[in-house]
Amino acid sequence: MAREANEASPLMRVGACEAGLGRFSGAMTRQQRAEYAARRLAELYPSPPIPLVHRDPYTLLVAVLLSAQCTDKRVNLVTPALFARAGDAAAMAQVPVAEIEAIVRPCGLAPQKAKAIRGLSEILVAQHGGAVPRDWTALEALPGVGHKTASVVMAQAFGEPAFPVDTHIHRLALRWGLSDGSSVERTERDLKALFPRDGWNALHLRIIYYGREHCTARGCDGTVCEICRALFPGRKKSVAVR
């Protein structure tokens, strides 16, 4: 189905790819592949929206926490009821963990997520005046908040350059020869080194959307979607994602 979607849209025609690749001869370097992918993705997604519905840094933080091992679509179905019950840290710190758990159960890992939401809300009230800190160390010290969650909040709530790596980005970075796929941490380091810092925030969203719509886990194996074919026209074998 990914191939059909590519052919249906003028933006996805192979001819456009070939025009963009005109200045490259022979095999492309890693930097050339990065430049081409960034340019093509900007054409496809000029203003990528933030996938998680939120109204402020706090609601974004909670939504990102809930998105662990869960789709953004499902999170967006759950958060309206959660934020109607408690829309800020002060209110959430008063909600029993069991009640939070009952609301967020469709997102999976409900006991851990509910405990983390209540715990981080209490810390925000006690240590940060109820506000989400614009600080990497303080964010990563909150319950349930790891580096990826902190990166999303810093990028999408505060506009700080960050490159959160989710499963889509990790998969596409390997398929496009931008990283060796050995670890998420390695992928983040490699992508940050390849792309200009001021473009990280939009680019990570563009890669996510492309990975969901075209270079999917099952719909492409590194030889099917437009960008994979453009970057590696001679590739015959599928790319196994670690």
Low-confidence stretches: 1-20
Q: How many strands appear in the DSSP assignment?
A: 0
CATH class of the largest domain reads Mainly Alpha
CATH third-tier fold name of the largest domain:
Endonuclease Iii, domain 2
Helix content: 55-70%
Shape: elongated
- What's the SSE pattern? HHHHHHHHHHHHHH
Could you tell me the strand content as a percent range? under 5%
Roughly what is the average pLDDT, rounded to an integer?
A: 91
Class by alpha and beta content: mainly alpha
Distance between the termini: 24 Å
Taking all Cα atoms into account, the compactness measure Rg is: 20 Å
**CATH architecture identity of the largest domain:** Orthogonal Bundle
Number of domains: 2
Biggest pleated-sheet summary: none
Provide structural commentary:
The protein is an all-alpha fold and 242 residues long. The protein has two domains: 2-49 and 163-231, Orthogonal Bundle (Endonuclease Iii, domain 2); 57-156, Endonuclease III, domain 1, CATH 1.10.340.30. The protein has 14 helices and no strands. It has helices at 2-8, 14-20, 30-44, 57-66, 72-85, 89-92, 97-104, 110-128, 136-140, 147-156, 167-175, 184-194, 200-213, 226-231. Helix 4 (57-66) runs antiparallel to helix 10 (147-156), helix 7 crosses helix 8 (110-128) and helix 11 (167-175) crosses helix 13 (200-213).
Give the structure's gist in a few sentences:
With 242 residues, this protein is an all-alpha fold.
